[in-house]
Amino acid sequence: AVVSTQSTGVRSRGSLSDTISSSRSSHFLSLFRILQQHAPLLPVNHIHTTTFRAHEHPQPPSSPDETVTINYVLRDGTTRTIAGRTGDNAMYLAHSNDIEIEGACEASLACCTCHVYVDHDYFDKLPESTEDEEDMLDMAPELQENSRLSCQIILSKEIDGITVQLPRITRNFYVDGHVPQPH
Amino acid sequence: VGWFNGVPEHRHLDPDLSGASVAVVGHGNVALDCARIISAPLPHLEKTDISEHALHRLQQRRTKNVSLFGRRGMLQFQGTIKEVREFTKLSGVHLSVESDNIADVRAIMGSIPRPKKRLTDLLLKHSSPKQEQEGDISVCLKFGWSPVEVQTDTQNKVTGLLLRKNLISGDMLHPTITPTEETLELPCTCVITSIGYKVIKLPGVPFCERTHRIPEHGSRVLEYPDGPILPGLYTSGWARRGSDGVIATTITDSANTAYSILEDLREGRCSDVSEEEDMVSELEQRGVKVVTFDQWNRVDKVEKESGKAKGKPREKLLDYDEILKVK
Asked: How far apart are CA B94 and CA B138, in angstroms?
């Protein structure tokens, strides 16, 4: 095996190099977050990422008018309640709050890794999914009637208080049954 | 695929698109990809990083129809819905489907799981497609045909493809496929086969003939299926999982493989760990031409610069000597 000599240690998420690269690399970003947590002394350098677009780092709401509450039910059954803003993307909001939803294709409707179940009371309040989203949902394991891709859920006052549940399994994570060390 | 993607080994492939017809044997995503590139509108292609020689050849194409032949029936279709839907979004491309079993397939749609049902619905929709527009390239998925012979002239150039019709009967989900006497001779200048997937076997790397995959667990190569781990050897992608999934699947697979490697490094499971410089000089001593990641970044920059002038994301370098010069 080869270990690069150009290690610069582990960087915090906010200061990652903003080298432009292929648009599919945000998955490496989320995997990198996991690696940071589990292997803090590993030299990991030159991870290619896209430049951070503003909506990928949702800002906290500055007034109650624009606050939209969203609850994420995690795989272990616990709930995280997040105060988001109108217009926030539910997937990116989860990322910025360290909630482990994958986002392999960066919201480009080329995967199903951000799959969530939407609380039935709120499912009908969401705008109908496009055919492209439905095509990707076809590939999601344990698809249910209330399944949606979280990257297509945009927060609005109409869905204030929405609850989304992370599925037990996703298509990509830990495909060999590998279980991450608790942190 | 290597030809239009700029793989140096394939740049001289020179497919003949001077005839009206192209035949593709196979109904998987790679077959669909080939048909899509051949039929896609030029303004669309010109903005991609398609290799220069492929674009040039496509600009000269006289293709009027692309026929994709599948041995079995509609419910055995291997392509995925997104890839089929792509054809419906391309201007100048007319998608259609030909099958003798439309009624039989419609009859059991109620009992099929959602993903397959949606895909089959899309195929059925195009079995009676809207009117073809003048100038369209027709892309037709034809079910129940097996290739028999590629026909050539005295100079060994392709002149046509002979196919045999199959009868698809019984349970449409697990049909009986019976060859018939009916044949079709399709005159064409280009036949593309896209069936199955073969792993390139490397000396010293274990291989399971039965599954046609490299035995592994968590990307770590095993001596044989369920056998002991070979430390320091990893496998990723189709050689590991079989020919399944799209680019996003394989990218994620490689990330999972990287995770296994990093975990092994952390846990001290790799005995022979060397520095990058030592590895590079060892390889060069063995006559291997090495491009390091930093050097690749330079190649990347040059490709992007060249592409900019043409409105492309990049213009790929197609010659290994050029790549080595630029690094």
From this structure: 5
Segments of B36-172 assigned E as strands: 65-70, 93-98, 137-143, 145-152, 158-169
Q: Hey, are the CB atoms on A143 and B270 less than 8 Å from each other? A: no
Per-residue pLDDT tens over the stretch B191-200: 999 998 899 9
Burial class (CB in 10 A: 0-12, 13-18, 19+), A77: exposed
Are the beta carbons of B118 and A31 separated by less than 8 Å?
A: no
CA-nearest of A21, A4, A176, A26 to A101 is A26
* B232 contacts chain A (CB < 8 A): yes
Look up residue A60 and give its two tokens. 């906290």
- What per-residue confidence (pLDDT) applies to B13? 94
Residue B82: closest C-alpha in chain A = A135
Residues of chain A with C-beta less than 8 angstroms from the C-beta of B115: 138-139, 143
Tell me how far apart the alpha carbons of residues B153 and B158 are, in angstroms, rounded to a whole number: 7
Sequence-separated contacts (24+) of B302-306 with Cβ below 8 Å? B302/B326
Token pair, residue A132, equals 């492209």
Distance separating alpha carbons of residues B165 and B148, to the nearest angstrom: 10
Q: Using DSSP, state whether B294 is helix, strand or coil.
A: helix
Chain A partners within 8 Å of B270 (Cβ):
1
Q: What pLDDT, in 10s, does the model give residues B99-128?
A: 999 999 999 999 999 999 999 999 999 998
DSSP B220: E
Q: Which residues pair with B94 in a beta bridge?
A: B138
| ipTM attached to this prediction | 0.71
B85 touches chain A (CB under 8 A): yes
